[in-house]
Amino acid sequence: MTSPKAMVRHIVLVKFRSDAPDALRQELIERSQWSRKADYVSNYVCGHGVQPNPYPAQPDEWDWGMSLDMAREDVERYRDDPTHGAIPQEVIAAAEKFAILDFIIE
């Protein structure tokens, strides 16, 4: 059982399509950063060239990623925020793949 102070670490990694226009790549990054100003989000970080696996046998590098923390009770608030769902499909299509991970941290 988790404590009531449990937090959720939300991580998003993006690999862009090689043929995606720079304007769409930048728009996806900008629109994905909406939560950095949310009053319930903490420890927001983002960056380019994310390589979460340091082992040479697993060289996957992601083009952009972000991580943020929020209280467990704010997960639905984050998920249901209209800004979160307002990224146009053509902007999302600039990505070849996403990795989205959520961890409970105490």
Which SSEs are present, and which pair or pack?
Blueprint: E1 7-16, H1 22-32, E2 41-50, E3 62-71, H2 75-79, H3 89-92, E4 95-105
Antiparallel strand pairs: 1-3, 1-4, 2-3
Structure description:
The structure is a single chain. The chain is of the alpha+beta class and 106 residues long. Helices cover 19% and strands 39% of the residues. It is built from 3 helices and 4 strands. It has helices at residues 22-32, 75-79, 89-92; strands at 7-16, 41-50, 62-71, 95-105. Strands 2-3-1-4 form a 4-stranded antiparallel beta sheet, with no helix packed on it. The radius of gyration is 15 Å and the shape is globular. It starts with 6 loop residues before the first strand and ends with a strand. 10% of the residues are buried.
Strand proportion, as a percent range, falls in 35-45%
The largest sheet, given as strand count, sense and whether it forms a barrel, is:
4 strands, antiparallel
Structural class: alpha+beta
Q: Please work out how many helical segments DSSP would assign.
A: 3
Give the strand line-up of the largest sheet: 2-3-1-4
What is the β-strand count? 4
Termini separation comes to 11 Å
What are the salient characteristics of this protein?
3 helices; globular; single chain; 39% strand; alpha+beta; four-stranded antiparallel sheet; 106 residues
Provide a concise account of the structure shown.
The chain has about 110 residues and is α+β, with helices and mostly antiparallel strands.
